[in-house]
Design brief:
By secondary structure, the chain is of the alpha/beta class. About 45% of the residues lie in helices and about 10% in strands. The chain contains 14 helices and 9 strands. The strands form 2 sheets. A 6-stranded parallel sheet has the order 2-3-4-5-6-7. Strands 8-1-9 form a 3-stranded parallel sheet, with helices on one face. β2, α4 and β3 form a beta-alpha-beta unit. α1 packs parallel to α3, α5 runs parallel beside α6 and α6 packs parallel to α8.
């Protein structure tokens, strides 16, 4: 039987979109199957009120796995000498966009490591070419930490959205996941800069990352509540064999689904992906994410020859439905849980 205290907190979150840190921690600590069954329909109802049954599809282009950073959890960290590095050319990226456009995608997500080759001049030139070729499309960037001036230039060139996972809203926890030269304060400043410039901004965190606790997760939820992002990407932590966290346990499907539903109640309008990582830990992970309140999927438009090389974690799905070419397969999978892929840009509806 479901705990009355849990249902009371969920009901309050549904109407007020806010709880205290202690109450968030209590929810996280006391998850049960019954509580998941109670919250998920509420999350679906809220998202359907705003977005109907549409699931927005983003064409993901992982255009470089070269990165100057050494984050302890990441398979493309600079210290991983087993990683086979690559960098797509501008023409290859435009070919990916062309393929995606023909498949009906109207958002392109340019994601890469912090690769110094892609300076502002090169990125601005690339963004301008994409926007000129596909004026009805949105360009989302996921390029890590840059200066405010850099973010402004990219925005002025036509970029619409920016994804920068905050990873954790707890400073001590952040420092346990990142090398000393990276700063919690700088990451948070970057997010504030992006919002002030005018991007649709996405943040997010890994579920079940090393040293994570109900208290640190509660801070993540409170941060989302206060920051009010347009997008929020969460997925289970999955260890990579060539990182310091190789022997750590992965995050779970259940906790990720629980948090997706909670986030939908906190931020009714948020664009919330059912991530590749969720599909990696369970064959129907993305469908389950949609049923928990998610409304975005991001199949891969990158050339098949490099997909396996952009390996942030072990066993990433790189073929079949993950491949953008299998758009019909993805569409059928989404339809199997009562939703349909949308072909428009899928901007946030606040």
């Amino acid at each position: 039987m479901i705990d009355r205290q849990i249902t009371d907190l969920i009901d309050r979150l549904e109407t007020q979109h806010s709880l205290s840190l202690e109450e968030y921690a209590f929810l996280i600590r006391n998850r049960t199957q019954e509580s998941m069954d109670y919250i998920a329909p509420k999350a679906r109802h809220i998202r359907e009120d705003i977005y109907g049954t549409s699931v927005y599809v983003r064409g993901l282009i992982e255009f470089t796995n070269i990165c100057k950073n050494d984050c302890l959890y990441c398979g493309i960290r600079r210290s991983n000498h087993q990683c086979e590095r690559y960098r797509l050319t501008e023409e290859q990226i435009l070919e990916c966009c062309d393929m995606g456009y023909k498949l009906g995608f109207r958002t392109f997500v340019l994601q890469g490591g912090e690769d110094g080759f892609w300076n502002d001049d090169r990125m601005c030139g690339l963004i301008s070419r994409i926007k000129q070729a596909y004026p009805d499309c949105a360009v989302t960037l996921s390029l890590g930490e840059r200066s405010r001036n850099s973010y402004q230039r990219l925005f002025d060139s036509g970029a619409d959205r920016y994804l920068l996972r905050h990873e954790t809203a707890d400073k001590t926890h952040y420092e346990q996941l990142h090398p000393q030269e990276m700063s919690f304060e700088h990451r948070m400043n970057c997010l504030r800069d992006l919002k002030e410039i005018g991007y649709q901004v996405g943040c997010g965190f890994m579920v079940g990352s090393p040293f994570q606790t109900p208290e640190t997760l509660a801070k993540d939820l409170k941060f989302l509540e206060d920051f009010s992002p347009d997008m929020c990407g969460i997925g289970p932590f999955i260890p990579h064999k060539d990182t310091p966290f190789a022997s750590q346990s992965a995050g779970t499907l259940e906790e990720t689904l629980w948090l997706l539903s909670i986030i939908r109640l906190i931020l009714p309008y948020v664009l919330l992906p059912a991530t590749t990582a969720l599909g990696t830990i369970h064959p129907k992970g993305r469908e389950m994410g949609i049923l928990a309140g998610a409304n975005v999927v991001m199949p891969n438009l990158s050339p098949v020859s490099v997909r396996k090389k952009y390996e942030l974690y072990d066993n990433k799905i790189c073929t079949g439905d993950e491949a953008a070419e299998c758009r019909n397969c993805l569409s059928r999978r989404i339809q199997s849980v009562g939703y349909e892929l949308a072909t428009d840009r899928g901007d946030v509806r606040r």
